[in-house]
Each structure stands twice: as C-alpha cells, then as structure tokens.
Design goal:
disordered C terminus, DNA polymerase, domain 1, 15 helices, elongated, mainly alpha, three-stranded antiparallel sheet, about 55% helix, hpI Integrase, Chain A, DNA-binding
DNA sequence: ATCCGGCCGGTTTCAGACGT
DNA sequence: ACGTCTGAAACCGGCCGGAT
C-alpha cells in the first residue's frame, strides 16, 4: 500500500466520520504524511508495520529541533492517525498510545472512567433534598447524568432553552459551536421543576443555576458546578472520583447498555466524531461483545 | 460549606508567513 | 496574486489553594 493512498484513506475518515474542518484535515494529513515518509523511506509501507520505535525515534530525533508547542501539535496529529487505525482497522496500537505523549490519564489507559450503578445511586443519594442547596445540586447532577452534558453546558443552561410542552431542552454554545436538542426525561424535568419552584431564589437572571450565598442570584460558573458534584462524591465516599466527565461517561454507558446506536449517542453527547464517543465507551466495547452484542459490528 | 481565580494539559482552529 | 502550511491562539475540562 502506498503512503499516498493511506493518506487518502485518513483524509476520507477525517472528512466523513470525524467531520473536522478543512484546515484541520489538511494539517493532520500533512503531519502524518511527513511522519510516514520519515518512517518508511523505502515506501514499503503498511499500517500494521508501524511500531512504537517509529514514533519514539521520530519524536526524539526528527523533531528535536522544534519547539515544545509544535511538537505537541504534531504528536496530537499522529495520535489522531493512530486512533483512526484502531477505530477503522481494528488494529491495536496500545503501546503507541501509551507512550508518554502528555495525554490525559483516562485516555492513556484506553479505558473510560465511569461510575458503577451502586456508585451512581450513592452519589444521587448524597444530596440532602430537604434544603435548597441540595435540591439545586441534585438537579445539576441529574442534568449531567441523564442528559450527558458537560459541566460547562450545565452552567450555561438558560430558562429559554427549555421547551416544557415538547419536553425538550436545547444545548447552545457547546464545545463544537453547534446546537443540539435533547429529550428531557420526566424524572429530569421533575427535578428541575422542583428546583425552580422550591429552591431557586428570586432573580432576573435567565441562567438556570444561580448562586445562593455570595452574589445571590448570579449565574454559577463552571467551577462551582463541578464543585457541587465533587463534594457530593466525597460525601458519597466514592473513591477515585476524577471529575464531572465521569457522569457524562456514565450517561454514555447507560445508553449503550440500553442498546442506543453509537451514532445517536454521539449526537446526544454533542460529539462531532464517533471516534470520541467510542473512547467514552471503550470498556463496554469488550463487555458488550459478550453480553449484548449490540455494538454496531465486531471488527477483526 | 461555598466560591473564586489561576494554572495546567489536550484538542481544534485560524491568521499570517512563506513559497511559487 | 494566490495557494499552502506552520505555529500560535482559542477553547475546554480538570485541579488546587485560598478567600469568604
């Protein structure tokens, strides 16, 4: 297989599956092309021949003269390519992805961190709903866990975003600058309704979740939203709690377990790339092959 | 207990430098 | 004048220490 053909394969994936912008696609393809030509000067290339040493040598020798920022960018592009190979061809490149490429721990491990059912229940039970703060924070947790929102998206939720009659909520200003409309579960809706009726202070603010103490009625920031969940996790005694993204992962896990299609989950979670979704749900990939067989397909 | 702000690492995008 | 490509910026989520 020629390197040019391989780059075309990568480009097709970036365009059709990852749906990245043209600039991103071009820059990723170029970085990978240079990398591949450097590793296989004899042009006896095929994807499965790529080894950890290729990457290591490339980073330490060829890229030794570039700035750290540039190296970081190139690493990102190579990683993107390797993940494409894993996703598209089913070839495992654990050793490459485990190289110290300054990636988040949960991604290096190749396993998403999510809560077990008992941990989820413990977390939700850790909110004292006899006081306004507990009601508010419980509603936040349900938005994260039921809707699979990022904490920044929860912090930006506005009263204007809810269509109560239709039972939907629209998420704006997301990471990918697009909008998406989600169905609002009855339980989630009731929780938010309870917060609005019995907990939320009088304020002109349209942002849903507001502060109770300092700066009463002002919007909560992303960090406050995160902190409410973190404190609940401490109360619930959940060890290894790493952050609010665990709830997002948990939402993805539950959808997978309910047989929801991967593409649909990507839409709900707001991922432009199915690849991102597959990272969130990695561990279930293995489980589900045995248990349910609802993964789209098993690659060899 | 709650909140703020600064810092960090990772990813994607884009402005402008560069070559033709 | 125009297209290509690099590297910096923008954005995001996470962590932590200190203030209230």
């Amino acid at each position: 297989m020629s390197i040019e053909a391989e780059i075309e394969r990568f480009r097709k994936y970036l365009t059709e599956v990852a749906k990245l912008s043209d600039n991103t696609i071009v820059s990723q393809c170029n970085a990978v092309k240079i990398f591949l030509y450097c590793c296989f000067p004899e042009k006896d290339f095929s994807p499965e021949k790529i080894t950890v040493d290729h990457v290591r040598v490339y980073l330490t020798n060829t890229l030794r003269h570039v700035s750290n920022v540039t190296r970081k960018t190139i690493i990102v592009r190579i990683r993107s390519y390797v993940r494409f190979l894993e996703f598209n061809d089913g070839v495992k490149f654990d050793k490459i992805l485990k190289l110290p490429m300054t990636s988040p721990v949960w991604k290096q491990a190749g396993i998403s961190k999510y809560l077990t059912d008992s941990e989820t229940n413990a977390l939700l039970a850790a909110y004292d709903q006899s006081n306004p703060t507990g009601i508010r924070d419980y509603a936040i947790a349900r938005c994260l866990k039921d809707l699979g929102l990022r904490c920044s998206e929860v912090a930006r939720l506005s009263l204007n975003d809810f269509e109560w009659l239709e039972g939907t909520v629209t998420i704006r200003q997301t990471k990918t600058h697009s909008e998406r409309s989600l169905p609002l579960h009855a339980v989630t809706g009731k929780t938010i309704e309870k917060y609005l009726l019995h907990s939320r202070p009088d304020t002109q603010e349209r942002i849903l979740f507001v502060r109770f103490k300092k700066e009463l009625g002002q919007p909560m920031g992303t960090s406050q939203v995160r902190n409410t969940v973190r404190r609940a996790a401490i109360r619930a005694g959940i060890e290894n709690f790493t952050g609010t993204h665990m709830l997002t992962h948990t939402a993805a896990k539950e959808m997978i377990n309910n047989g929801v299609d991967l593409k649909m989950i990507a839409d709900i979670l707001g991922h432009e790339s199915i690849e991102t979704t597959s990272i969130y749900t990695k561990i279930n990939f293995m489980e589900l092959q045995d248990v349910a067989g609802i993964w789209p397909e098993v690659r060899t």
